[in-house]
From TrEMBL:
<keyword id="KW-0156">Chromatin regulator</keyword>
<keyword id="KW-0805">Transcription regulation</keyword>
<feature type="compositionally biased region" description="Pro residues">
    <location>
        <begin position="1"/>
        <end position="10"/>
    </location>
</feature>
<feature type="region of interest" description="Disordered">
    <location>
        <begin position="1"/>
        <end position="21"/>
    </location>
</feature>
<protein>
    <recommendedName>
        <fullName>Protein dpy-30 homolog</fullName>
    </recommendedName>
</protein>
<keyword id="KW-0539">Nucleus</keyword>
<keyword id="KW-0804">Transcription</keyword>
<comment type="similarity">
    <text>Belongs to the dpy-30 family.</text>
</comment>
<dbReference type="InterPro" id="IPR007858">
    <property type="entry name" value="Dpy-30_motif"/>
</dbReference>
<dbReference type="InterPro" id="IPR049629">
    <property type="entry name" value="DPY30_SDC1_DD"/>
</dbReference>
<dbReference type="Pfam" id="PF05186">
    <property type="entry name" value="Dpy-30"/>
</dbReference>
<dbReference type="InterPro" id="IPR037856">
    <property type="entry name" value="Sdc1/DPY30"/>
</dbReference>
């Protein structure tokens, strides 16, 4: 029996929608007034989860430096110099 595999689907940048939602939400809510957990959940956690996912895929020799560099490269609060209209970069 000859079974065909479905064509591979193109993947969207990992967590981009969550990151965009978090960024949009942050601009509408006064983050200084949030409780600690809500503040972290809305500002840091989405990007940190993406960084940790990339970390376990790559398994670099220096994981702390890798996560730090990932967070700096994908910081939604800073525009990407190569694409000013896109606040996140899509590759590591």
């Amino acid at each position: 029996m000859d079974q065909q595999q479905p064509p591979p689907q193109q993947e969207k940048p990992e967590g981009a929608s969550a990151e965009n939602a978090s960024f949009t939400l942050n601009s509408k809510i006064d983050v200084q007034a949030l409780p600690i957990r809500a503040y972290l959940d809305q500002t840091v956690v989405p990007l940190l989860l993406q960084a940790l996912s990339a970390l376990v895929r790559e398994r670099p020799a220096d994981p702390v430096e890798y996560v730090a560099a990932y967070l700096l490269r994908h910081n939604p609060m800073k525009a990407n110099p190569s694409n000013p209209s896109n606040p996140q970069s899509s590759s590591i």
